[in-house]
Design a protein that fits this description.
Blueprint (H helix, E strand, L loop, with lengths): L2 H23 L12 H36 L15 H6 L7 H12 L5 H7 L1
Helix pairs in contact: 1-2
């Protein structure tokens, strides 16, 4: 990967990080409000649940983006954390925070779907 491509990915990741930080700070949707109407309370609870799921998703994405930016510091960006092969340029263009090549990602996803540990779980416990 060329220096210019690396700089482009780093710039993209930094912009995504800034965007996610702005979104995560806004937590208005998770406040609990009492309403005299039970139907309104049910609707607000549903909206609150959706806001919490979105916050969880955005927080996980922010962790992935930050981890990718950290990989720039040790020159491991673009290298699969599992098999240590180069992640394809096409994959990085689609998912700049990708930690695994497509093959290892599929294995990790399949393991997770079957209730087994994913590579990420193994990295945390290592």
């Amino acid at each position: 990967m060329t220096k210019q491509e690396l700089n482009k990915f780093k710039d993209t990741l930094e912009k995504k990080q800034a965007e996610l930080l702005r979104v995560i700070v806004n937590r208005e949707g998770i406040e609990i409000e009492k309403s005299p109407d039970a139907l309104d309370e049910v609707q607000q609870a549903g909206e609150r649940e959706l806001a919490i799921r979105n916050l969880d998703r955005d927080s996980a994405l922010l962790r992935n983006v930050r981890a990718a930016l950290e990989r720039f510091k040790d020159n491991s960006y673009g290298t699969c954390l599992h098999c240590e092969e180069e992640i394809s340029l096409k994959r990085l263009q689609a998912v700049p925070w990708a930690a695994y090549c497509i093959t290892c990602q599929e294995i990790s996803d399949r393991n997770q779907a079957m209730g087994q540990e994913s590579f990420d779980d193994l990295l945390v416990t290592a």
